[in-house]
Specification:
By secondary structure, the protein is α+β, with helices and mostly antiparallel strands. Helix content is 31%, strand content 22%. It has a single domain, classed as Roll (CBS-domain). The protein has 5 helices and 7 strands; from the N terminus they run αββαββαβαββα. The longest helix is centred in the first third of the chain and has 11 residues.
């Protein structure tokens, strides 16, 4: 039953989710997405890429909308850090699914980083998994 489930039960491990370093250009990121994600069994929806620093700390997220806005502004050679959305909201692995859903709804997020011990980035929880779990009892 979803009332007993926590974020850790539905999160995707950090290394199983598409990610790029903050210094990658928008063009490089597009190539990563096209080569390793789109058109493969790894394709995830809604599409977003995580952005990291040198120490694998999460800095933000980058959606297809962010990429397209960057292209529209003529920033194909600019680093993704210029168009990413900074990560400001997090949950812990032991937090309830309801808490994660509330964070996502209140902040209009499609995914939420999972931080362990308030510092170590361990994964991501997506709205699609939360929706599936929280609506399971209804259907």
């Amino acid at each position: 039953m979803s009332q007993n489930k926590v974020v850790n039960d539905v999160m995707i491990d950090v290394f199983e989710y598409p990610h790029v370093p903050y210094w990658f250009t928008i063009k490089q990121t597009i190539m990563v997405i096209k080569k390793s994600v789109l058109g493969t069994e790894k394709c995830i929806h809604p599409m977003a890429v995580l952005v990291f620093d040198e120490k694998y700390n999460i800095l933000g997220t980058l959606t297809m909308n962010d990429i397209l806005k960057g292209l529209k502004s003529g920033k194909a050679e600019s680093p993704v850090s210029e168009v990413m959305v900074p990560a400001r909201f997090f949950v812990e692995p032991a937090d309830t699914l309801s808490k994660a859903a509330e964070q996502m709804l209140n902040n209009n997020l499609i995914l939420l980083p999972v931080i362990e011990d308030k510092k170590k980035f361990v994964g991501v929880v997506r709205m699609i998994e939360l929706f599936d779990e929280l609506t399971g009892a209804i259907t």
